[in-house]
Amino acid sequence: MKIWDKGFSVDDKIEKFTVGKDRILDVYLAKYDAIASKAQANMLAKVGIISEEDNSKLQKALDEIIARCEKGEFFIDENYEDVHSKIEAELIEKTGDAGKMIHTARSRNDQVLVAIQLFLKEYLSETKSKVLNLIDIMIEKAEIHKDDLMPGYTHFQAAMPSSFGMWFSAYAENLLSDLYFLDAAYKVADQNPLGSGAGFGTSFPIDRKATTQELGFSEMAVSSVGAQMLRGKTEKSTAVAISMISATLSKLSYDLVMYNSQDMGFVELPKEMTTGSSIMPHKKNPDVFELTRAHCNRLQALPNDITMTINNLPSGYHRDFQILKEFLFEPMEQFNNILDILIFAIPQLKIKTDFMNQSKYDSIYTVENINHLLQTGTSFRDAYRIVGIEVDKGTYTPHKEFKTTHLGSIHNLGLDEIKDKVNRYKK
Question: Which of the residues in the chain have pLDDT under 70?
């Protein structure tokens, strides 16, 4: 069934090409299409376009579809080109002429757009909760390991003393910054386009405020042309948010792959979370973090993929937008899987504390030696030169006894301040 059927058939090759993966990917949108159709039917009844009796039939049928969607029992077979034609066909089958009225004052353009907006709103809310959960885990680990020192690196060289408390808290605070991008994407998605039709409104006396309120949007995409211009913008905003968080998680994963190596040996994964080698029996590989790193690196390309698809298009709807679902929907699911695995794995990290006395880390205290000389009245530049010469001559002895005081340093992590930032964000 095609909801645009006018009595002629499309060539099979053309249909296969234009439908693409819609029958598979539209399953993601089915529940939200039905939810929006409930609001559409209620609104049509309110303005007198359909009867209350017909509306009641439609509401019951749509509730049944939503229930099947939530159970994973809704599918789109080859008799239908997309979710919209499938749901409308079911409504006609179950409610008769009432189902034939559901599309009044609506186009597939605003129909798919409102479903995508609702879908992305829910996804972004769920993702936000997962990221906040991961942030809380990082803060908890920072608290536990605030006194456990580790070498800090620049240029892949041991540079200065750091701590696991500082490392965990750094990722907590950076992930919080990433959430601002997610909030921006949510703000873009939180606009109701339903009623904009094909981008030019309708002569029917519809009530767009009613559907906006019922669907839980904070505001309406007022201009019918502007509403259609949300297509692509909402997807790209979501992709940017995923990309920003993925960049942080990729860095985190890379750190843990290195820290788990024998050469560094800062952390240890439980053996149940590692894989082995087919030839080397001693290997316990951190595959989980290598894969999260790879997936996160790939996800950072999402905004570019979307840009290359929608760039240089004029206003209005274009079929180009269809393939955005191919770029975004499955990666969105993959991203949530990454968050789930990190939420599972990070709490089980074992932090080692017996490696800092190795002589190879003596050099990370050179700055502390400089600071010690400054306290005796030596100028910084002279102290720098003195310590540098000692290192070159092999006479350098590290000054390991030190205490930082400023906020955000090893011995004053500012965890309360970071917690306060997180709590203010949660409000």
Answer: 1-20, 277
The pLDDT of residue 171 is: 98
12-104 and 118-193+222-351 in the same fold: no
Q: What fold characterizes domain 12-104?
A: Fumarase C; Chain B, domain 1 (1.10.275)
Total count of residues recorded for the chain: 427
| Residue of 66, 69, 97, 80 whose CA lies nearest to 19 | 80
Query: In the 8-state DSSP scheme, what is residue 219?
Result: E
The whole-number pLDDT of residue 10 equals 62
Q: What is the pLDDT of residue 79?
A: 86
Q: What is the pLDDT of residue 19?
A: 61
Three-class secondary structure of residue 268 per DSSP:
strand
Residue that the structure tokens 């058939």 belong to: 9
Amino acid at 46: K
**CB-neighbour burial class of residue 161 (10 A; exposed 0-12, middle 13-18, buried 19+):** buried
Backbone angles phi, psi at 412, to 5 degrees: -145, 70
pLDDT tens-digit profile of 67-76? 999 999 999 9
Contacts of 134 (CB under 8 A, 6+ apart): 175, 339, 342, 343, 346
Q: What is the CATH number of domain 118-193+222-351?
A: 1.20.200.10
pTM for the complete prediction? Answer: 0.92
Q: Which helix (H) or strand (E) holds 21?
A: none
Question: What is the C-alpha to C-alpha distance for residues 159 and 409, in angstroms, rounded to an integer?
Answer: 15
Task: State which H helix or E strand residue 157 sits in.
Answer: strand 157-163
Q: How far apart are CA 81 and CA 88, in angstroms?
A: 12
DSSP 3-state assignment of 405?
Answer: coil
Amino acid (one-letter) located at 262: Q
pLDDT at residue 4, as a whole number: 46
**Tell me, what's the pLDDT at 281?**
77
Q: Which amino acid is at 248?
A: T
pLDDT of residue 270: 82
